[in-house]
Amino acid sequence: MFRAIGFGLLVIAVTHAVRAEDAVVENVVFAIHGGIGLDKVEMTPEIDKRVRTELEQALRAGFAALNKPNATGLDAVEAAIRLMEDSPQFNAGRGAVFTHDGRNELDASIMEGKTLKAGSVAGVSTVKNPITAARAVMEKSKHVLLVSRGAEAFAAERGLEIVDPKYFRTEERWQQLQKQLEEEKKRSEVRGQRPEGISERYLPGFSFGTVGAIALDKAGNLSAGTSTGGMSNKRWGRVGDSPIIGAGTYADNEACAVSATGHGEYFIRYSVAHDIVALMKYKALPVNAAADEVIRKKLKAAGGEGGVICLDHRGRFYPSYNTEGMYRGCITRDGQVQVRIFEQ
Amino acid sequence: MFRAIGFGLLVIAVTHAVRAEDAVVENVVFAIHGGIGLDKVEMTPEIDKRVRTELEQALRAGFAALNKPNATGLDAVEAAIRLMEDSPQFNAGRGAVFTHDGRNELDASIMEGKTLKAGSVAGVSTVKNPITAARAVMEKSKHVLLVSRGAEAFAAERGLEIVDPKYFRTEERWQQLQKQLEEEKKRSEVRGQRPEGISERYLPGFSFGTVGAIALDKAGNLSAGTSTGGMSNKRWGRVGDSPIIGAGTYADNEACAVSATGHGEYFIRYSVAHDIVALMKYKALPVNAAADEVIRKKLKAAGGEGGVICLDHRGRFYPSYNTEGMYRGCITRDGQVQVRIFEQ
């Protein structure tokens, strides 16, 4: 049913500009994103259907977790992100993009808005669910950020599921890397250009992107989490914004929960997630105005493509992006699911 | 001369509370810190002299770099931090604390307030000057944050000075680790406690801490940089706030430049450096009020020990810390040096 509504709104969005305040959804308790996605011209009915199905499943998984007795928002965030990490469709966990050296290096973070506690892992290649490792860092260590082999050792000591690095490999992502390496070789032969990672948005093929989730639980606490494989063809241990608290993820009960996706370097430099929170707290902006100020104004002016999903402490959900679309969805207190791609 | 003034103020500070606005130094073009340091009862005249000498040298090196033709604030920040990285006294570069596994894993970051460009490295063990590697990431890659072996490979490809990991070792830091490992063993035998890293502030011995520098150059541009060995006895690839843009380092021409030191996990969770900038931009707070709001109020209430040095776009320098003291100094446009430890 909601898919039909989604298509209806798509048609409207093409001909009418939708004001930001119209796009705020009230009474939301859980929301997710699956990256900034394809341009409209690349979208097919088949991909559209695949995205919506996957997002709806993750939304329902998070909602179910949220409604268990004594559940917190962290449980919902972790449950939905685990599902998307396990799906080969998203650039997170299994199905992540490859590094230049043919590896999958994964980043994730999680944060609790009541206590401002947080945990992150970056550059892990053996942890099946990086979001669960991030939560373990938050809850079972005195630290916030663990990287590379050290983070893997921590996850193993804590009894988390460890997999052979090959587990994360999918043929589509491998072929994406091969195409990039070929193009890179041609470019460097012609112009001597040095290879660097490129954004998932510009990859050949139709897998989805970075994933994130935000929740408002029954106790009124906000949570946020993000998980990614980063840039395809990335080199030199490059880490983007997803595991950086304040950049790709933030949650503060006094403002909102945020999860980001996009060109991570810009999100770090602009402290995007924390900046949205700061605009709400210090300038008393509503969540949609704060998000648009950062994403559609500052980041767009700087050339930083991407978007965020935000959920404030009153249950107002708002996605802001400066690309054509963003794969995302939300679910209200009474279980109404809404999934969107291009339409506000 | 300034040392004498310093001691004089120390005496006053013991009996009279000094208001924050009294502690703002005007017309500053360059400032540094060397960590949050010892408590008063641990301080000896000999350590006091050593700290002041080292800080003054670094201040003068930064000031000299700043006054070269066509120099930018980044040149001053890099020059002063390189000197402190090369000194065995600070917890940065040579003389860094050891990890649980007996390694030195170094983190650094740098940021330019005009463009919001930034660069960081984390967990490197072979790069002689991590601050120079951070600057290379900013200026010679499309990335912001590179970690571990990848960051080392990048530094080597860029022709930066690579050293044997043993280069960073000092006997004092090694003995600190041995003492910690012994205590840890006793504790785990008695109470089954798990070992985790501890803050440099609680280490036996009298080496100094994390280092940082901030500059306001002739073009009116702000810059900031930070470099550290992190927590002694740290495990699992723990990374603190120093290489995290928005946490340990930030520079924005519209507000101020910030470099932090202290219990890094709190600085990440509270996005400390960016929060100070946000309070100036969105609540129009002056630099000292913004810094105190974050360090002396929020962080102190949360139990997060540490401090920051800040320099606003008008040349107003202000250090804020919730510990007894902070090793820091500044130099004014006309070359007046001021070094302080406990006294505001």
Would you give an account of this structure?
The structure is a homodimer of 344-residue chains. Chain A is of the alpha+beta class. Chain A has a single domain (20-340), classed as Glutamine Phosphoribosylpyrophosphate, subunit 1, domain 1, CATH 3.60.20.30. Chain A is built from 9 helices and 13 strands. Chain A has helices spanning 2-15, 45-66, 73-86, 130-140, 148-157, 171-191, 264-269, 272-283, 287-302, and strands spanning 28-33, 106-112, 117-124, 145-147, 211-216, 222-228, 238-239, 249-251, 256-262, 306-312, 317-321, 328-332, 337-340. An 8-stranded mixed β-sheet of chain A has the order 4-3-2-6-5-1-12-13. In chain A, strand 3, helix 4 (130-140) and strand 4 form a beta-alpha-beta unit. Chain A is globular and about 55 Å long. The interface between A and B is large, with 45 and 45 residues.
List the helices and strands and how they pair.
The structure is a homodimer of 344-residue chains.
Chain A: H1 2-15, E1 28-33, H2 45-66, H3 73-86, E2 106-112, E3 117-124, H4 130-140, E4 145-147, H5 148-157, H6 171-191, E5 211-216, E6 222-228, E7 238-239, E8 249-251, E9 256-262, H7 264-269, H8 272-283, H9 287-302, E10 306-312, E11 317-321, E12 328-332, E13 337-340
Parallel strand pairs in A: 3-4
Antiparallel strand pairs in A: 1-5, 1-12, 2-3, 2-6, 5-6, 8-9, 9-10, 10-11, 12-13
Describe the structure concisely for a colleague.
Chain A has nine helices and 13 strands. Chain A has 344 residues and is an alpha+beta fold. Strand 7 (238-239) of chain A pairs antiparallel with strand 4 of chain B, so a sheet runs across the interface.
